[in-house]
Amino acid sequence: MYAKSTLSHADAVSAVELFEQGFTARSVALALDFAGAPVQMLYERWQLRGSGALVTRDRRQYDFETKLEIVRRHVKGESGRALSAEFGLPSPGTVATWTSIYRRDGEDGLRPKPRGRPPTDHGVSAPKTEIETLRFENERLRAEVAYLGKLRALRSQKRH
């Protein structure tokens, strides 16, 4: 079953058996004393994939062009259910989500986002000219001399 589902696998199997007998999501939720929302989501997946709704699917990334094609067809009037069945999407809700992002942010909202933590700039950029390079090296050497001087002073204090 899906990681975020509140239905156990056994509960989902029982619900799918009732769906196949002609029960609606609401009647299954009432008959098995389950919450309505997870049963409704399972029912929608079952309508798309039949008993394959019980199989956990790997998360799949869809490229920008595919998303854009699906959204444009949805905006023109094709149903989210038909598009999700045609393209193998997890649910019609995926089409609705992409469509709302498209309406809010335009095409750029459907483009892949960079993942992970952005690289940090530690304030040290590469020197550009020879003078800047020499100044940077001079500063580093002065810090090294100061460090070694303090280290020498500490060692001489330990000896006495």
Describe the model.
The chain has helices at 9-20, 25-32, 36-49, 64-75, 80-87, 92-105, 130-159. The model has no long low-confidence stretch (mean pLDDT 84). The longest helix is centred in the C-terminal third of the chain and has 30 residues, at 130-159. It folds into three domains: 1-57, Arc Repressor Mutant, subunit A; 60-112; 126-160. The protein is elongated and about 90 Å long. It contains seven helices and no strands. Helix 5 packs across helix 6. It is mostly helical and 160 residues long.
Low confidence ranges: none
Largest sheet: none
Total beta strands: 0
How far apart the termini lie comes to 72 Å
User: What fold name stands as the CATH topology of the largest domain?
Assistant: Arc Repressor Mutant, subunit A
Mean pLDDT: 84
Tally of separate domains: 3
Strand content: under 5%
Give the overall shape, derived from the CA principal axes.
elongated
Order of helices and strands: HHHHHHH
Return the structural class: mainly alpha
Q: What gyration radius follows from the Cα positions, in whole Å? A: 30 Å
How many separate helices? 7
CATH class of the largest domain: Mainly Alpha
Based on the structure given, which CATH architecture of the largest domain is correct? Orthogonal Bundle
- Helix fraction? 55-70%
